[in-house]
Amino acid sequence: MNHALSTHLFVNHRLTTALLTKIEQAGIPAVEIFCALQHLDYRNKAQVYELAHWFRESELKLNSIHAPIYTDEIWGRSGPQAHLSITQTAKAKRLETVDEIKRALEMAELIPFRYMVQHIGVGGEEFDMHKVDAAFTALDELRVFARPLGVEILLENIPNDLSSATRLAQFDELTHLHMNYVFDVGHAHIGEGIEAAFHSMRDRIRSTHVHDNDGKEDVHLFPFTGTVDWKKTMDLLKSREGQYPLLLELRERPDLAHPLDEVKQIFEKLEEQ
């Protein structure tokens, strides 16, 4: 399978060309950039221009970006006003969220990428038809904005009652947006189960988020350190090989001095399953 790495692994550090060079030198062919302001300030034209110049001279491909989920640099800990959600039922707040996501999408003018990963709601959010309507309105506008930039918006299954694999199918039936998906292995493991979620989403999976957990907490562990059955999971993922990359979305481990060496070993071990 094609391999890719989310820069979520380094999300608490500024995204620099030196870091991207290390990823490229590790033999990883593609990345997904996580749009968190402490990592990539997509509003900062100087940082974006610097990265754009580097990508033009590099063989490392930018497969996708992950839409911002907070407006602060401390993972939303500054307060609820920092959370970005397209399910906001208050029109003014939803428009602010959409505008912020558009700022991240505008990077495609300088650094081409194929996909943007988008959540519907936040972790643990309950189902509400008003929120479904809000998400439909927001996504309809974002798709129109992204299309001339050459970007397709993908919906991710996350641990809430709005965007499990089953809910994503219902959302499509209700809205007829016919959007494609990112299959998040760790989130499926917490929710309805990896096999059930995969079969529900499989025809529309265009990218993946691969990580491990204990089946309860969304902790983005390195594979083989949680309770995911990787043999069964890889059998599923390989059944649609060529449709999407094997993309690791991991959390930083302070005990690892050389995390990219571990990433390479994880790719090898996954392919051996």
Sequence-ordered SSE layout with sheet pairings:
Elements: E1 3-6, H1 17-25, E2 30-34, H2 45-57, E3 61-66, H3 91-105, E4 115-118, H4 129-146, E5 152-156, H5 165-175, E6 181-184, H6 185-190, H7 194-201, E7 205-209, H8 230-238, E8 246-248, H9 259-271
Parallel strand pairs: 1-2, 1-8, 2-3, 3-4, 4-5, 5-6, 6-7
Detailed description of the structure:
The protein is α/β, with parallel strands linked by helices. 37% of the residues lie in helices and 13% in strands. It has an eight-stranded parallel sheet. The two termini are 12 Å apart. The mean pLDDT is 96.
Strand order of the largest sheet: 7-6-5-4-3-2-1-8
- State the end-to-end CA separation: 12 Å
Briefly note the structural class of the backbone: alpha/beta
Number of strands: 8
User: Number of helical runs?
Assistant: 9
Please state the CA-atom Rg, rounded to the nearest Å. Answer: 18 Å
Helix content: 25-40%
CATH superfamily: Divalent-metal-dependent TIM barrel enzymes
Percent of residues in beta strands: 5-15%
Largest sheet: 8 strands, parallel
Q: What would you say the CATH architecture is?
A: Alpha-Beta Barrel
Mean pLDDT level: 96
Low-confidence stretches: none
Domains counted in the coordinates: how many?
A: 1
CATH class reads Alpha Beta
Shape: globular
Secondary-structure element order, as H and E? Answer: EHEHEHEHEHEHHEHEH
CATH topology: TIM Barrel
